[in-house]
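User:
Can I borrow your eye for a moment on a structure tokenisation matter? Would you put together a sequence-and-structure record for a protein of your own picking? Please set it down just below, with no commentary around it:
AI:
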Amino acid sequence: MVDVLGGRLLVTCGGAWVEAEAVLQNKVLALYFAAAGCSPSRDFTPLLCDFYRELVEQARPPAPLAVVFVSVDASAQGMQEFMHQLPGAWLALPFHDPYRHELRTRYHISATPRLVILKPSGEVITDKGRKQIRERGRACFQNWVEAAEVFQNFSG
């Protein structure tokens, strides 16, 4: 994650701070660009949460997947309200971190929600994660993990 989030502090849904490298190592990374005021974001988020719960919280062993919420909300309060809907293990870039805007530019985010799937190196696997989850459900994760070359015992 050195290329993408290395050296960054992320915040948990509960408000704790964590070092990106410590929690994202050897995982497929999903950057979730969304906003509370965005109707399509509110529509897709429950599906993404279920996808995550099935793969990570309920699976044994858990899938090597980490989701980082990159808020495109207009206010910190909007971001906080949106984060209350998210699974507790999800992380987020802090609202006041200007890197949120750099990531939007880097990944050409012009509309939300957008789910960009990355290898641990930061290389893009797909910028169509939302579409793939809607069309294929959990089955798309096996392709992501193979592309990411993440060692694991997960069998989708």
The first strand starts at residue 9 and ends at 12. The beta strands are 9-12, 17-19, 28-34, 65-71, 91-92, 114-118, 124-126. Helices lie at 20-24, 39-57, 76-83, 99-106, 129-136, 139-148. The chain has a mean pLDDT of 91.
